[in-house]
Amino acid sequence: MIIGITGTIASGKSTVSDYFIKQGYEVIDADKITKELQQKKEVLEEFREIFGEEVLLENKTLNRTRLREMVFQNAEALKKINQIMHPKVREEFEKRKREHAQEKIIFFDIPLLFEAHFENLCEKILLVYADREVQITRIMQRDGSSRELAEKIIASQAKEEEKKKKSHYIIENNGSIEDLYQKLSKWEEMFNENCRSGRK
């Protein structure tokens, strides 16, 4: 079974993934896949052709800071990046899923699950969410971003209420890591019990 983990930026998806990794589950991380793909020469060349030399650093690696600025200042730039990356991420996910076919449960951590229309890759979807002000504070503290940029990043993603309607399970994460882990432990217990009883 593939369970998608999603949510808007700074909602705590990575912390949720870390929990399941510690519990012994296989987690496929879309962000890590993306970063690995963006190190490939042919992908960097696609970025350079579309956005120019400014998206590359002097050592010819991707200038992620500049790319992020461009993306959240220009909706068309985000669309072009997604057109490059989404098919490649999907292909790599399918490859890794086959490599771990023996696993009963695989978690797929993907922030843009709904935006990329990857719902059909998952049998169940677990949404992690946090209040808007909590998200903004986390982005500013984590990335050193301005409040304006943090708000633009959040606004570029699908609305939280829409994601909730499409998700099978919802975990609120406005508190501490300890609070989140307690909620995940209860969810895991409930989910496994439902699986044993055939309810899922």
Automatic annotation (TrEMBL):
This is Dephospho-CoA kinase. Belongs to the CoaE family. Pathway: Cofactor biosynthesis; coenzyme A biosynthesis; CoA from (R)-pantothenate: step 5/5. It catalyses: 3'-dephospho-CoA + ATP = ADP + CoA + H(+). HAMAP family: Dephospho_CoA_kinase (MF_00376). One of its GO terms (molecular function) is dephospho-CoA kinase activity. It comes from Fusobacterium necrophorum subsp. funduliforme. GO terms for cellular component: cytoplasm. One of its GO terms (biological process) is coenzyme A biosynthetic process. Catalyzes the phosphorylation of the 3'-hydroxyl group of dephosphocoenzyme A to form coenzyme A. Keywords: ATP-binding, Coenzyme A biosynthesis, Cytoplasm, Kinase, Nucleotide-binding, Transferase. ATP binds at residues 10-15. The keyword Nucleotide-binding applies. It comes from the Bacteria. It is found in: Cytoplasm. Its EC number is 2.7.1.24.
